[in-house]
């Protein structure tokens, strides 16, 4: 079972979000949030934490909110006791958090924005680029591939040390260094593309919206 939680930013509820939730986390993290200059950046970070710990609670595990999140040398977050596998992503006004009880997981969300697609040609394989430029909606196709590739390297765990062009997405899967990864599009908002990746094929995915308060 894969659990995916998401939330939208809310300027109106920002102060109440801080008041009701920030004190649950470690003092170090509270200070980090207070150092942000923009309320959007503070809320994106805080919502990621809230989604993570609310998700852990809902799947039936116990985990105090001040539990330390560590990072690998490739900057992938994890719990030292392997309590649960998780990954967080945000773009625009949406934050997403994916949870798995067993498997390494990666998720990426991107707002479909006006980018110069040609600037990213060197990140795609020849077949992927052909699919993008021959698509009826080049922008949508590009962001589909982009979130797939980002989700895969996050699930793999070595991040951008893996060149995006070094592996090819084919029929919702790919192989990196002999390891197969599976992909699934998560439909949250028509203005965004979101993809989740696992080392095993997908069974049920639970998608749940978190309301800011």
Give a structural overview.
By secondary structure, the protein is of the alpha+beta class. The chain has one domain (about 1-210): Ribosomal Protein L22, Chain A (Alpha-Beta Complex), CATH 3.90.470. The protein has helices at about 15-20, 25-35, 40-60, 125-135, 140-155; strands at about 1-10, 70, 75-80, 85-90, 95-100, 105-110, 175, 180-185, 190-200, 205-210. A four-stranded mixed sheet has the order 4-5-1-10, covered by helices on one side. A four-stranded antiparallel sheet has the order 6-9-8-7, covered by helices on one side. Strand 2 (about 70) and strand 3 (about 75-80) form a beta hairpin. The chain is globular and about 50 Å long. The mean pLDDT is about 95.
Explain briefly what this protein structure is.
Helices cover 30% and strands 26% of the residues. α1 packs across α3 and α4 runs antiparallel to α5.
Fraction in helix: 25-40%
Return the CATH architecture: Alpha-Beta Complex
- By CATH reckoning, the class would read Alpha Beta
Which shape, going by the Cα principal axes?
Answer: globular
Strand content: 25-35%
CATH fold naming: Ribosomal Protein L22, Chain A
The succession of helices and strands, N to C, reads EHHHEEEEEHHEEEE
- Kindly state the number of beta strands: 10
The major sheet is characterized as: 4 strands, mixed
Alpha plus pi helix count: 5
The CATH superfamily appears as: 4'-phosphopantetheinyl transferase domain
Question: Mean of residue pLDDT?
Answer: 94
Q: End-to-end distance, in Å?
A: 27 Å
Number of domains: 1
Which ranges are low-confidence, i.e. pLDDT below 50, for 5 or more consecutive residues?
none
The quaternary state of the protein chains shown equals single chain
Radius of gyration: 17 Å
Biggest β-sheet: strands ordered side by side in the sheet: 4-5-1-10
